Amino acid sequence: MQIIIFGAPGAGKGTQAKFLSQIFNIPHISTGDILRDSVKRATVLGNTAKETIESGELVSDDLMGALVKETLQNIDYVKGFILDGFPRTVNQAEILLSIFQSLKIDQPIFILLETDDDVIVSRLSSRRACSNCGTIVNLSNIKDSNVCPNCESINTLVKRKDDEADVIKHRLNIYNKTTLPVLNYYQDKFKIISVKGTDPIEVITKNILSEIEVSR
Ligand code: AMP
Questions:
Q1: pLDDT tens sequence across 108-155
Q2: Domains (range + CATH), the chain
Q3: What does the alpha-carbon distance between residue 146 and residue 132 come to, in Å, rounded to a whole number?
Q4: For this structure, is 88 an active site residue?
Q5: Is 216 a catalytic residue?
Q6: Residue of 45, 59, 167 to test ligand 1 pocket, by largest number of atoms within 8 Å of CB
């Protein structure tokens, strides 16, 4: 099953994508994670994209299209995959259609996580990433804000540069102006599932699964 998970930054795409990837045993492709990993390893891609990511801007469509195509060519997608963070512009949405055509990939299910800007601002302000194991947490959901709940490292939970208040606002503007039109573009092309992204995490997963069941 091919899934595209779509929504504002902080809508919970990564969290839900991880669950779905485990449930359906399909690879999770997160363009944000791939870019951050490239920055960490100081690859050519990472060095090119670093400033753009930290300022909350979008990396170029050509670069992202090539990255997604290369990633898909290098994984086993027989059972499907879940794509998180791409497409983010109508141009990328067109590029993705042509990638699917050239790799003979069937129509995906498109999941929209609906949120509102106030929830996003509050979620992203308290989001932290563990610099040791990469786990993403929300400070309001963990016992001790100094200890990573996954690897138990101390003082490794850090705020991403693009989760600073001014950058969050900028990313939301970009989402509303540039990314949201992707939804219209795919409206008559893909099966679109819409789920409330402000519900508790387990409820969102349950709702996604039952919507997927209905759509198959
Ligand atoms: P994310 O973790 O998905 O929020 O992505 C973090 C950052 O990576 C974004 O704010 C962009 O700078 C960059 N990025 C990730 N995916 C894309 C994409 N499809 N197009 C352009 N830039 C992207």
A1: 999 999 999 998 998 899 999 999 998 889 998 899 999 999 999 999
A2: 2-27+75-215 (3.40.50.300)
A3: 13
A4: yes
A5: no
A6: 59
